[in-house]
Amino acid sequence: MLRIALPSKGELEEPALAFLRACGLSVLRPNVRQYTAGIPVLGDAVVLFQRAADIPAKVHEGSVELGITGLDIVRETFHDSLRCAILMHDLDFGQCELVVAVPETWIDISSMADLVEVADEMRGRGLELRVATKYPNLVRQFFLHKGVNYFTMVASTGAIEVAPTMGFADIIADISSSGTTLRENGLKTLADGTILNSQACLVANLANLQANPEAVQSTKVVLEMMEACLRARDYFSITANMRGDSPDAVAQRVISRPEAAGIRGPTVARVYSRYGQDTDWFAVTVVVRKENLLRAVEHLRTMDASSVTVSSPAYVFEADSAAYRSLMEALQDTLATAPAP
Questions:
Q1: How far is it, in rounded angstroms, from Cα 251 to Cα 59?
Q2: Nearest 5°: CA angle at 63, between 223 and 77?
Q3: What is the pTM for the complete model shown?
Q4: Architecture of 96-197 per CATH?
């Protein structure tokens, strides 16, 4: 059995379900009040709905094999873990930043170097800079790296944007998507105060998977489908009809523009026209990156192409799955470092 933890509420819940649906891994949840569900294409796989903040801990303790949650929470939780790994770092939703923010009234403070001076000055007066955050591990590492050596962490589970106003912290380090909430609470971000760019990611308990080959095979399906779905978002498939002396002649004209030639090159096939005398028509199909779409279409037009159609592929599979290959390497490393019985 493969167990997968998904966010039960908040900003990640619906995007996570929509992403899995787009990957062909739709979650079947007959009752929205239930905290368990299934993914029919994965057989007896079980989905457990948990708070996004709790998912890394559930993966780490082995309650589930896989989990989807924010990279920020994972980095905070897994900082010293060898049992767990991030299988896919970016699932293309849930984007945000973990940032350092100070009161707007601190007019002369705009960088971490300025914050170093503030912390040193406060230290000279027998005080320490108080930082309200839910990410003590990430913040401590970042501050020390930037040379801020004198500070105190203030734990907060609520809306920490109000911490400086309420007086129980001087500055904050928190997640921000647009910066609006920070500005509305009289805070500003520092120019070099981005601790982490975060988004939804897929994490795994390597020890559990190492002991369960069937779960590994189900995980392979998950990785293959996710990877192919994400890759497909970067491409368009273009098909056009054009005249030519032969398939080779048409192909050579298409590949004269590399950005229009497709991933490997064009596929050219003879069109069997309903008008018997038209025997010199060919259908050309190329798969191009999205940023090359208009250039590719214009190139085909210069060849007098007609009936140009464009579609979005649902999946683009490579020869193998890079994510699955990385998983197998990680499992080998886990086996090699496991203590002797």
A1: 51
A2: 80
A3: 0.89
A4: 3-Layer(aba) Sandwich (3.40)
